[in-house]
Amino acid sequence: MSPCFDLVGIGEGMVEFHAAGVFANAQTFHRGFAGDVVNSLIHASRMGLRTALVSRIGDDAFAPALVADWTAEAVDLTHAPVVPGENGLYFILTDTKGEREFLYRRAGSAASRIGPGDIDSALLGAARFVLVSGITQAISASAEAAVAAACALEAARANTVYDPNYRPRLWAQRGGVEGAQRAFAAIAPKVAWILPSFPADLPLIGAEALGDRAALAAFAAISGANVALKLGADGVLLQFGGRVIHVPAVPAPVIVDTTGAGDAWNAAFLQGLASGLPPDRAAAAANYYAAGILAHRGAIPPRCS
């Protein structure tokens, strides 16, 4: 029988390199290990949730340190075996305002070979929450099928959470925005919560000119799910139980790097729900938590001693 976890994530882990300063002037880089779903799992684990990753890890030179790092973060890797292949990697390109772009080298990675056979119905059915991502859908056809298989499980559907996380460059090799829209439409009606970002995810609903409240209504209508629309510096808009609530942002005292802030928000929001908080209070706690992430470089800040 599979152990019970508070949060199971299905996604891609990668090797991260980020500079100590602005990328254009950088001479040295710090190595880390990240990935949107992985980031959320690590943050959730640090907040006390029992977490597990469903993925594949390549047996390249980075694998021992990667496995050691995530194991130290108490992320269960039973369903993320080390297999022949390479791990994807990326560089974070930050500017003087902390805004970032990414340079990826991930094609054909071990994680991109995740497939429906990697989905354990007992594991997901026993989890309090299951986190799936549009990035996982985008990395390969087999990974998209894995997400579809997970969301088809009736036992897990009521607890499945979906961050659409639209990345145009990643989808460019898999049908462009039309491919992303198709993937979104296939999953959004099968989950309990969707956690889109505004305005980045508006292309998924073919309505890039919508304001935030109209976008919230559109995401809710298309999915039938509860929605937490992340607005960055403007906070978050929630629609659940027939209610619409705006939860203001918490001002960030320092902004060094925005990488991973949304993933941190997801983790804190789910931790709040798992603790029994109503969604608006869970969102307020998540806003506070995510604001603190902005003062650190890279997707994962160092652990407190």
Describe the protein.
It is built from 11 helices and 15 strands. Helix 1 packs across helix 10 and helix 10 runs antiparallel to helix 11. The two termini are 35 Å apart. 34% of the residues lie in helices and 21% in strands. The strands form 3 sheets. The chain has a 9-stranded mixed sheet with strand order 6-4-1-10-11-12-13-14-15, with helices on both faces. Strands 3-2-8-9 form a 4-stranded mixed sheet. The model has no long low-confidence stretch (mean pLDDT 93). Strand 12, helix 9 and strand 13 form a beta-alpha-beta unit. The chain has helices spanning 36-46, 63-72, 121-126, 134-139, 141-151, 154-157, 168-171, 176-187, 212-223, 261-274, 279-293; strands spanning 7-10, 14-19, 29-34, 51-54, 57-58, 75-76, 82-83, 88-94, 100-105, 129-133, 160-163, 193-194, 226-230, 236-240, 243-247. It has a single domain (7-293), classed as 3-Layer(aba) Sandwich (UDP-N-acetylmuramoyl-L-alanine:D-glutamate ligase). With 305 residues, the protein is α/β, with parallel strands linked by helices.
Feature tags:
single chain, 305 residues, alpha/beta, UDP-N-acetylmuramoyl-L-alanine:D-glutamate ligase, 11 helices, globular
